[in-house]
Amino acid sequence: MVGIGALAAGAALAACDESLPSEGATARETEPNAAKPAPTPASDELGNQATEYSAATTFNNYYEFTTSKEGVARLAYQFEPSPWSLQVGGLVEKPAVFTPDDLAAFGQEERVYRMRCVEGWSMVIPWLGFPLARLLERVEPASEAKFVRFETVYRPEQMDEQSRGRFEWPYVEGLRIDEARNDLTLLASGMYGKALPVQNGAPVRLVVPWKYGFKSIKSVVSIELVADQPTTFWMALAPDEYGFYANVNPDVPHPRWSQASERRIGEPGRRDTLMFNGYADQVATMYAGMDLAVYY
Amino acid sequence: MHKDKRVLLVTHTVGLAPAVTLGILHARGALGADPVGALVRASGRWALTFLMISLLPSAVSVLTGWKGMLRARRWLGLYGFGYALAHLALLVGLDYAFRMDLFWRALREGPAMWVGLFALALLLPLAFTSTDGWVRRLGPDWKRLHRLVYPAVVLAIIHYAAVFKELRPGPVLLVIVLVVLETARAVAEPRARARRRRHRLDVKGGRARGAMSVGVGGSRARSLKSPRYQRVRMRWAFVTSLLLLSTLLYFVSLETWAYWALLLTAVFVGWWIKV
After folding, report:
1. Of B163, B201, B238, B269, which is most buried by a Cβ count within 10 Å?
2. Chain B partners of A266 at a C-beta cutoff of 8 Å?
3. For residue B29, what are the domain limits?
4. Number of domains composing chain B
């Protein structure tokens, strides 16, 4: 076990190491839109180094498989991410079904985002994807569409926890339409220059970096434009603990724990949690005049 | 008494095994992507585990009349306290890296955290008065004081339940085990008291009463009861102990294969000592 872990870590390091140009180059060439010269090893705009690949792929919250963060990667082999189809419909002019190839045609760019979990830990992940806005543009939302509702695949035979009765499946998430159109909001199908591993939400997932991690729904099969605010998985489970917005906010504690600081995986000690996870410049205006303690 | 020594040997082996196992796993980098979190969580689980196990000896003695385990009780409680202290130390020293501003804020804004701290505070006087000297000095008050372990365990379970996003089966199972164990004890207690009274009359001017009257000849006590009642009580004791241990087995996952091998050995040895 330890040996395998060390090998995986070694492989990840090698893949990010500039001293191995051939390996790095091939990894990038296999991606469409390989033109952008991504810095290696990746770091975000604040200079935070990307979390080690081995950590990002062995420490996952993905309740469809199990509530154990270390357990998800061990169960991931049961899941078959292809073939896949993503349905986009609801209040749109041109409803459509997208295959992973169709999605790849939207282009792939690398975005290094901080990921802050509501539990109080965080990572920095180099995603490969494209802004969701581009997809919404394609289907042409109707003027009544005010919210976007996302749904994860329901496959109890491939996802252990879904076959038990503890939770209400499928997983549902939602965004306000302006949030969905924000340039930061990503539809990702890869990370660290590779295809998305199953435990990270293969084949396609949402990434909303200024909100707690649970908003970044994994293995999406349906995107629906709707008029009313959808009830999400966590809202249904505990409405007074998990709100629709779930913006990262150090000054609005969870009812049972503080959100003022976070443990960055792979780093000693703690970091102060930043307002909107450090993306206030790009997103704060969307919430102007809103009491964020009420709309948590 | 060499029987007691064996009980203590088993207790210390069981008590230190988790710390040693965790230390080795940490040194080998085998605690996963979040070793700090893993250490904090594991120490907390072990604290709760030992506090729960420390409730077993008196229940077993009430149910079966076997007092052998009572010798281990104070040590089990102390291990519970020790792991709770380690839990806090790891949280403050490793996780918060002594950023006390953040720690105080986390404490102020997080009921999950201060409930745990309150449980630990309740254990402090118990740990302090756990020596033979304090048992003698406090007399019957010692037993009364040490009933604080019950609110402490309840608070610790609440703390454990509160740190997760949603209700987990672990703490729920612990509550069930606690209720079954204490119900069994409450049902058996009056009869056990009557038994003690009879026994005291039997053994004229017998040994000192109270919590520390350990190692009373079990065979003699047992011979005073009807075989049918004896069987019922044994079954109760067996079922509750098994329930407790299997729940803890479920609840303390991960790092613990070596530990459970040790614990099973301890249970077998304990069984053997009893006879």
Report:
1. B163
2. 33
3. 2-100+169-203+213-274
4. 1
CA distance A141 to A35: 31
Give B-chain residues touching A118 at CB under 8 angstroms: 165
CB proximity list for B268: less than 8 A, separation 6 or greater: none
Burial class (CB in 10 A: 0-12, 13-18, 19+), A80: exposed
Q: Say if the Cβ atoms of B105 and A258 lie within 8 Å.
A: yes
pTM for the model stands at 0.82
For residue A215, which amino acid is it? K
Do the domain assignments include residue B29? yes
| Residue type (1 letter), B24 | I
pLDDT digits (tens, 9 = 90+) for B137-153: 999 999 999 999 999 99
Distance from CA of B43 to the nearest CA of A (A): 17
Residue B135, domain member (yes or no): no
Residue B159's closest CA among B10, B51, B260?
B51
With beta carbons under 8 A apart, name residues in chain A contacting B28: 2
In a domain, residue B107? The reply is no
Separation CA A84–CA A196 (nearest Å): 13
**Which residues of chain A make contact with B111, given a CB cutoff of 8 A?**
255-257
* Half-sphere exposure of residue B191: CA atoms within 13 angstroms, side-chain side: 20
What the block records as the tokens of A281 is 């410049």
Q: Which residues of B are less than 8 Å from A52 in CB distance?
A: 33
Per mean pLDDT, which range of A80-84, A101-105, B75-79, B241-245 is the poorest?
Answer: B241-245
Please judge whether B109 and A257 are an interchain contact, meaning their C-beta atoms are less than 8 angstroms apart. yes
Cβ contact (<8 Å) for B110 and A257? yes
Of the options 3.90.420.10, 2.40.40.10, 3.30.70.270, 3.40.50.720, the CATH number for the domain spanning A2-287: 3.90.420.10
In a mutational test of the A interface, the residue from B159, B165, B251, B252 whose CB has the highest number of chain A CBs within 10 Å is: B165
Q: What is the ipTM of this complex?
A: 0.84
Q: Over the stretch B16-72, which tens digit does the pLDDT of each residue have?
A: 878 888 888 888 888 899 999 999 999 998 899 889 889 888 888 887 777 777 888
User: Under a CB-based contact definition with an 8 Å cutoff, are residues A88 and A133 in contact?
Assistant: no
CA-CA distance, B198 to B215, in Å (whole number)? 17
Establish if B105 belongs to a structural domain: no
CB pairs under 8 A between A and B: 85
Helix (H) or strand (E) holding B251: helix B227-251
A119-172 pLDDT, tens per residue?
999 999 999 999 999 999 999 999 999 999 999 999 999 999 999 989 999 999
pLDDT digits (tens, 9 = 90+) for B213-239: 444 444 444 444 566 666 666 666 665
pLDDT at position A166: 92
Is the confidence at residue A267, as pLDDT, over 60? yes
Where exactly are the structural domains of chain A?
2-287
Closest Cα in chain A, distance from residue B110 (Å) = 4
Between chains, do A270 and B97 touch, taking CB under 8 Å as contact? yes
Distances (CA, A) of A177 to A95, A238, A245, B160: 16, 24, 12, 38
What distance in Å separates the CA atoms of residue B74 and residue B214, rounded to the nearest whole number?
Answer: 12
